[in-house]
Amino acid sequence: MKRKLMTFTAGFACFLLAFPFCVSASDATHIAFTSDRDGNAEIYIMDTNGKNLQNLTNHPARDSQPAFSPDGQWMAFVSDRSGTNRIYLMNRHNNELRPLTNHLKSEAERDPDWSPDGQWIAFAHWHSGHPTNIYKIDVNGKNLKQLTNAGYNRVPAWSPGGQQIVFYSAERRDGSGIYVMQANGRGVKRIMNEGRWGSVPSWSPDGKKIAYVNLASSGIHIMNTEGQDLQRLTPAKTWSYSPAWSPEGQWIAYELELVNPWGNLNRDSNIHLVSPDGAETRQLTEHPARDHYPAWVPASFLSVSPAVNTQTTLWGSLKQPIHD
Question: Residue 180 maps to which CATH number?
Answer without folding.
Answer: 2.120.10.30
